[in-house]
Hints:
Blueprint: E1 3-8, H1 14-24, E2 27-32, E3 35-40, H2 42-51, E4 57-66, H3 70-78, E5 91-98, H4 106-123, E6 130-131, E7 138-145, E8 148-154, H5 176-185, H6 188-193, E9 197-200, H7 207-216, H8 238-255, E10 262-266, H9 269-282, E11 288-292, E12 309-313, H10 327-341, E13 346-351, H11 354-358, E14 366-372, E15 375-383, H12 393-403, H13 413-436, E16 440-445, E17 453-458, E18 461-467, H14 475-493, E19 501-506, E20 524-529, E21 532-537, H15 551-560, E22 565-569, H16 575-582, E23 587-592, H17 595-607, E24 615-619, H18 622-628, E25 633-638, E26 643-644, E27 652-653, H19 654-666, E28 669-679, H20 688-693, E29 695-698, H21 700-703, E30 716-721
Amino acid sequence: MSRRFLATCPAGVGVYLAQELSQLGAESIVERPVGVSFEGELGLAYRACLWSRMANRIVLELGSWPAQSADDLYEAAHTVSWTEHLPMNASLMVDFSGRSADVRNAQFGARRIKDAIVDQFREAGLSRPAVNVKEPDLRIVARLHKGSLSIGLDLSGESLHRRGYRLSGGLAPLKENIAAAALWAADWPERSRNGGALLDPMCGSATLLLEGAMMALDRAPGLLRSRFGFHGWVGHDEQQWHAIRAEAEARGRDAAASDIEIRGYDGDIQAVRRSQENIARLGLEDSVRIRCKGLESVARPTHRALDSGLVVVNPPWGERMGDADALPHLYNALGALLSREFNNWSAAVLTSELSLGKAMGLKAGKRHRFHNGRLELHCLQFELSDDNRFKPLTDVAAKSDASASDVKPPLSDEATVVANRIRKNLRKLKPWLKRESVSCYRVYDADIPEYSAAIDVYEDRLHIAEYAAPKEVPEDKAERRLQALVDAAREVFSIASDTDFAVKRRLRQKGAEQYRRLAEKQDRVVVREGGVKALVNLHDYLDTGLFLDHRPLRTWLGHEAKGKHFLNLFSYTGVATLHAAVGGATTSTSVDTSATYLEWFQANLALNGLSDRQHRSVRADVRTWLEQDERLYDLIMVDPPSFSNSKGAADFDVQREHLSLLELAMARLSKEGVLYFSTNFRRFELDPAVADIFQVMDVTQESIPMDFSRNQRIHRCWRLTHR
């Protein structure tokens, strides 16, 4: 019986995954944003789980239903006959993604589908299945997109990219299926069949070489796995699976004697040892040979004639590893090696920065783009011949200088790397910025660790907050890196005037230091967020008056506040209150200890034409005020500092005191009210007692906007209601 399946994969891999599935016998293949859908019998799905080098998961599609509300999710899931899929006394987990106006939280969506499954078992008089989010017997995949809910069964279990041969990686591990896609794009399977060699001069943990060896030796990448997701499925055919696995094992044995040359080198002896351990786990010691050798010592092997082959390499990117100052020179040395030693070969080079690819001094013929986790990778292909002449870095720089404006000096190598990263971030953000009408956003957040700063855009102005450099970094080097950040930002945003950007060095704030003036410019400018206008000051304080990462939470408050009494605790400049007020809150109360920020809030109220009688402010210690206040509120926001020893307030530690603080705040929440609690303390752990007393929903993922998606630890956020 033919069924419909979905193979998920990293972005950019779909075109190659579709080719692979076609070779496995798939039919009706359709590329989708999340992967590739296809049709075939159950045996095809087994083969895809065992043989796919590029898929993350193979999902059996159960159906799709129109859905908008939480009740729609429940009803759709309840129509599936789950006893045909989930064994008795088995455990499950629901992997839910997507949102709607009514379903804004992935955990909530997953819970509604889980409830439908559990209720169906109860209604049939059967014991309810247990939930196991770490190692479930069966993983259910649900996706809500544009009013349609799709539900499927994950036949893979653990992501297929985890082959099992690599127990540890280097500083910047390359996912196995990304490595396979790069090799596929570079035509390695065809090259290997024609007797070509494979060589990696900076092999790290040997991921590229091992994926290449398994391709050349007809080795199924899933053979090291003992369990797949389908083992916990009622519809599993063990006899058919056993035959397919036995066939794969036989094919691997038949090809084991293949005469193939695969070589790797690395200057780090620890990396060499890791790679040799990985090779041993696959039993490929006779096929893949690794030696400890620096790039400057690598040469084409001479023990036999190797007239053609593929050099594949994943050099340091500067994103997670490598000295950014030296990277252009490293890439140029790589280009020199390829040109000198590998004439008539081909090369495939993976990099996250196209500028580094240009530094190689060779002309790339093709370019492919993948996503390794959150990092965008470019796979550059080079045909190495006399026609593709190598250019030293000085010549590459000279060409750049000749094309530059006589008025504007060229960026340094350091600034160029940063500027390229900012431009790449902007390309990703622009569709979202336009769609959501966002004018204040984060465009860079220490994306390159050596250049550690946050760069925020406030309409036509920039705010650069450098994180303090480690003590071991010399002061002159830290200053040079800061200047590179400033130069890069100026270049990308075409900012000439010093008044249009601010540069700060951010240290850990202690007590009243967060309120300390850094300057006396008193230059407040008006920015817009949704239907709200707010004043920001880019120069005088460490913070600007607007925490950009809380944009989604403020939007929620605006949507939920109509006809309600709103309470904003630790209110700062009151922008959340502005959203609630503009959204139709009947009244609001904003509490903070800082006279500076409450004055700022009053100015924000006036800017939006809002009454300070209807929307009052209170200067007080929040905990003391809560103990004395007797009113009830329908909507509360609690966003305390991590630590505080401010004048006029007792010392505060959010980890130590959040339970008592939330108990006080929830005492002021009406019976059907909602409280949002957030903290930016990175080591914060919510006291389990909070969930024992109140209904708690973690909404962190939904509360982090796209411009902060690179930093998932920017804050944590929960939604609390009364039980």
